[in-house]
TrEMBL record:
This is NAD(P)-dependent alcohol dehydrogenase. Transmembrane segments: none annotated. The lineage of its organism: Bacteria, Bacillati, Actinomycetota, Actinomycetes, Micrococcales. SUPFAM superfamilies: GroES-like, NAD(P)-binding Rossmann-fold domains. It comes from Isoptericola chiayiensis. Residues 10-317 form the Enoyl reductase (ER) domain. It comes from the Bacteria. Gene3D superfamilies: Medium-chain alcohol dehydrogenases, catalytic domain (3.90.180.10), NAD(P)-binding Rossmann-like Domain (3.40.50.720).
Length: 320
């Protein structure tokens, strides 16, 4: 079968489309015929092997050379221990280990998969898992705070649309931060205010936000804390490894000392969360933003676009 191969960490040039052996489902696995895969910021990190946490899947080179985590497809075989799914089921979800999806077929334990609703295409379904689960966890609690001021840093990339959308759905006033040329995209997502990071540092907005969700953390706990109102919370989702460690080790102390809550948002891969956020998509509360749909052969170019940050929303690879 055909698959995308990333033999080493590096720039998008290391990626190629090639023939690989057919996967076989183990007793506790399903074999999925992949129809669509969406790319996340984590795929860019797993390609580059940076930040350091991206090497969890192999210190010197990726143990599984096939990238891609958010898949949608059809179950074509199921091992004898699998009871939740059967051949013919349309499924989607985030693959355990964040790799293996950019292939015509993938064998996987189905713990993170859910059934695809009939009203969603494979492309739409593939655009939901990782960013949807981040958005769900990040905005939990906002429904009890109508009018809360929320800032999303890095809102114009793969994961921002569902975050901005869910915060708005809960009645928040949303400030979205990204590159200047993504301002129109951010307004289309529903952001009330847009900040271009080249022009303005949101961390200088002192005492303003009830919640800051940071997809691309580059500031210290002290600095981000000053943008929060008393009682407000900062949650770092991704970004520099030294700052992630600082958020875990020092963030809670800075928060306690200043009457704020500062830390990291840990988002486990969860079928229950995916089902919950998908029901919000099918109910019309939010929808993912799709930058473009490309065939498997164009994945090297898609990784180049992801690496430069030129995508506004999700790049989705359609297979077959
Ligand atoms: N915490 C968890 O449990 C968990 C789970 C899964 C994933 N993650 C992490 O979540 C992150 C996923 O985010 P994503 O998929 O939305 O990433 P993404 O597609 O890379 O989006 C990030 C956006 O931020 C923009 N940006 C870059 N520098 C910026 C700056 N200084 N200020 C404001 N915006 C800036 C980027 O645009 P330009 O580069 O063009 O400027 C891009 O539009 C990844 O880091 C991933 O590792 C965390």
């Amino acid at each position: 079968m055909r698959a995308v191969i990333q033999p080493v960490y590096g720039p998008p040039d290391v990626v190629r489309v090639d023939e690989v052996p057919e996967p076989v489902a183990a007793d506790d696995q399903v074999l999925i015929e992949v129809r669509a895969v969406s790319l996340n910021g984590s795929d860019r990190e797993n390609l580059a092997g940076r930040p350091a946490y991206a090497r969890i899947a192999g210190l010197r080179r990726p143990r599984n050379p096939v990238p891609g985590s958010d898949v949608a497809g059809v179950v074509v075989a199921a091992g004898p221990e699998v009871t939740a799914f059967a051949p013919g089921d349309e499924v989607f979800g985030e693959l355990p280990g964040y790799r293996g999806g950019l292939a015509e077929r993938v064998a996987v334990r189905p713990t993170t998969l859910v059934r695809k609703p009939a009203g969603l295409t494979f492309v739409e379904a593939a655009a939901i898992p990782q960013s949807g689960c981040i958005a769900l966890r990040a905005t939990r609690g906002l429904s009890g705070e109508p009018g809360a001021r929320v800032l999303v840093n890095g809102a114009g990339g793969a994961g921002g649309a569902l975050l901005v959308g869910l915060a708005r759905h809960h009645g928040a006033e949303v400030t979205a931060v990204d590159r200047r040329d993504k301002a129109d995209h951010l307004r289309r997502l529903g952001a009330d205010q847009v900040v271009a990071h080249e022009d303005e540092d949101w961390a200088d907005h002192h005492d303003r936000y009830d919640l800051v969700v940071d997809l691309i953390g580059r500031r210290s706990p002290w600095r981000v804390g000053r943008a929060l109102r008393r009682g407000g919370r900062y949650r770092m989702v991704g970004g520099r490894t030294d700052l992630l460690l600082a958020m875990v080790m020092v963030g809670p102390l800075v928060g306690r000392a200043t009457g704020r809550s500062i830390g990291m948002l840990v988002v486990p891969q969860s079928a229950a969360d995916l089902a919950e956020v998908t029901s919000l998509v099918t109910g019309g509360a939010v929808r993912p933003a799709i930058d473009r749909i490309v065939p498997l052969d164009d994945v090297p170019a898609a990784f180049r676009r992801l690496a430069t940050g030129d995508n506004s929303g999700k790049i989705v690879v359609e297979i077959g």
